[in-house]
Design a protein that fits this description.
The structure holds 2 protein chains of 2 kinds.
Chain A lengths: L1 E8 L15 H10 L3 E6 L7 E6 L2 E6 L8 E9 L3 H8 L4 H4 E7 L6
Chain B lengths: L8 H27 L2 H22 L5 H20 L3 H13 L15 H9 L6 H12 L4 H7 L4 H17 L12 H22 L2 H17 L4 H14 L6 E2 L2 E2 L12 H10 L9 H14 L8 H15 L2 H15 L1 H11 L9 H13 L3 H14 L3 H16 L1
Helix pairs in contact in B: 1-2, 1-3, 1-5, 2-3, 3-4, 5-6, 6-8, 6-9, 7-8, 9-10, 9-11, 10-11, 11-12, 11-13, 13-14, 14-15, 15-16, 16-17, 17-18, 18-19
Classes of the chains: A alpha+beta, B mainly alpha.
Chain lengths: 113, 413
């Protein structure tokens, strides 16, 4: 199964004591790219550099920043190819941002038929 | 009873009920593993039961009703899949299993950890499901309760409960929640989650007055203890529930809760107490919360009268439990035990240090404990004020009535 792993920056988790269970980001990438579980992943620029695009009442609206004002923001993403959710949880739990932020796992919506 | 003899409807119903009690969970659990289809698994068992009600009065009750039920349910599942004609691999799988496993016990070398029933329980209690869905799934699929009965027990409609079950089964399929017992490194945490669901079923039964839920929880506890004979905590949880449930006939008089201190101990279920005491795991340096709680319940069970209670041991056990949980409610109970062991003033001093915890601010149990300790110290006026405060804060009518009655008693002296 394919899972999208959203890496979420969470101000409430910043400044936590380092957790020995998580990997350094480079080691994490190397490990799961090597065993084929990591398909693709990127770090994203912060919300100051974001642009929101909407169509409303036939008009195009382009605005600065993310649509909603939240303190949490998506700092990156990774696509995982796993046997099941437990394997995805295991991989996510080793990502450094599971300790310094949060990880959200979302299964891909499969093509119908 | 061999075929040909006359069987009464009662005979059939009794034999079927026994066979379902013995075999339903195994059949459902194995069909879920082989087909991946939760609804098909449940339907196949219901269908087999309906067939039994038609066949058995004509053909006689089979020699092994449970095996009959298993075979019939498997064949029904194969039929449904064949008709759907999309799952050839699964049909082949099931047919192979049919040939391999004529015995309802499954393959003889099956280790407990590969038991389908254990896979099913861990999947129903997966932490990626919301807690209320874990409870509902466990009661529906593992315990086999009907949806409307689960709805009633949790004070919600059958439709709402049905939706909750549907969403949970949907998430298991869509999110890829695996059907297996977790790996060794995950097992302790996941087992805690399973035991928490079982204990929640037990305590919820008492909270809502649905006492049959407590019986279901004990049945689930027994199953887990049998399936995981090398683990202490399932056995400890079963012991804890048995020791608490043994007091069921004494804990309520005319619809009002009777505290442990005032219960008629001759009404306690001795057989359940003996079993609970026997089941407690041996004392180890590092042990889990249920082992400690079972020991606390055991100290109460061993006291012939309330005033015989070994409170000093209970204080020590609460120390152990507090170190494991850090729970403010445990700290609160510890101060009550200190009051009983070292005198009410010592208890009050301890309670003051506990009640600063922000999680206990305006908690009715703190005010009630303070009132009780003040009354024991002979300070009745102060006790009445504290208990009336507790009544104001109490979350349920029953607790409010009980506290108001206690305040009235104290006012009369």
């Amino acid at each position: 199964m394919k899972y999208m792993m959203f890496v979420v920056a969470d101000p409430e988790a910043e400044g936590q004591a380092p957790d020995p269970e998580v990997d350094e980001i480079d080691a994490w990438c190397d490990r799961y790219v090597a065993n084929g579980k990591h398909v693709i992943g990127e770090r994203l620029r912060p919300t100051e550099d974001a642009t929101t695009v909407r169509r409303r009442d036939g008009k195009l609206l382009v605005t600065d920043g993310p649509f909603a004002e939240t303190r949490e923001w998506i700092a990156g993403f990774d696509v995982l190819e796993c046997a099941d959710l437990d394997e995805a949880i295991e991989i996510a739990s080793k990502h450094p941002m599971s300790a310094e932020g949060r990880i959200e796992l979302r299964p891909f919506w499969p093509f119908e038929g | 009873m061999p075929g040909g003899e006359r069987v009464t409807t009662d005979d059939v119903r009794r034999a079927l009920a026994d066979a379902i009690a013995e075999q339903r969970l195994r059949i459902v659990a194995t069909l879920i593993r082989t087909t991946g289809d939760w609804d098909l698994a449940e339907d196949a068992v219901s269908d087999a039961a309906e067939r039994a009600l038609v066949r058995w009065p004509q053909d006689g009750i089979p020699d092994n009703p449970a095996a009959w039920l298993t075979t019939t349910a498997r064949r029904r599942a194969i039929d449904v899949l064949r008709r759907a004609d999309v799952e050839r691999a699964k049909v082949a799988d099931l047919a192979a299993e049919e040939a391999l496993a004529p015995h309802p016990e499954g393959l003889p070398d099956m280790s407990p950890m590969t038991d389908d029933r254990l896979r099913l329980i861990f999947t129903c209690c997966h932490p990626a499901l919301p807690l209320e869905a874990r409870v509902a799934l466990t009661l529906k699929i593992v315990a086999g309760l009907p949806t409307d009965a689960i709805g009633r027990a949790f004070l919600t409609s059958e439709a709402t409960m049905g939706q909750r079950l549907l969403r949970a089964k949907g998430k298991i399929a869509n999110a890829g929640i695996p059907y297996r017992v977790p790996s060794d490194d995950l097992l302790p945490a996941r087992l805690d989650g399973v035991l928490a669901v079982v204990y929640l079923v037990f305590t919820e039964g008492y909270a809502t007055g649905a006492h049959h839920l407590a019986d279901e929880a004990i049945r689930l506890g027994r199953l887990l203890a049998n399936l995981m004979p090398d683990a202490d905590e399932p056995r400890a949880l079963l012991a804890l529930m048995l020791l608490q449930h043994a007091r069921r006939d004494a804990r309520e008089v005319d619809g009002e809760r009777v505290t442990l201190e005032h219960q008629d101990r001759s009404l306690w279920d001795r057989a359940a107490i003996d079993e609970g005491l026997r089941l407690r795991p041996p004392r180890r340096p590092s042990r889990g919360v249920y082992a400690v709680q079972a020991d606390i319940a055991a100290v109460h069970s061993l006291a012939a009268h309330a005033h015989d209670t070994d409170w000093a041991t209970i204080v020590d056990l609460y120390d152990e439990l507090l170190a494991l949980t850090g729970s403010p409610v445990v700290a609160l109970n510890r101060s009550i035990a200190v009051g009983m062991s070292e005198g009410p003033l010592a208890g009050l001093a301890h309670l003051e240090s506990v009640s600063d915890d922000p999680r206990l601010v305006d908690h009715h149990l703190v005010a009630a404990a303070r009132g009780d300790l003040l009354a024991r110290a002979g300070l009745h006026e102060e006790a009445v004020i504290a208990i009336e405060r507790a009544a104001e804060l109490a979350p349920t009518d029953q607790e409010r009535r009980q506290l108001t009655r206690r305040a009235d008693e104290l006012r009369r002296g």
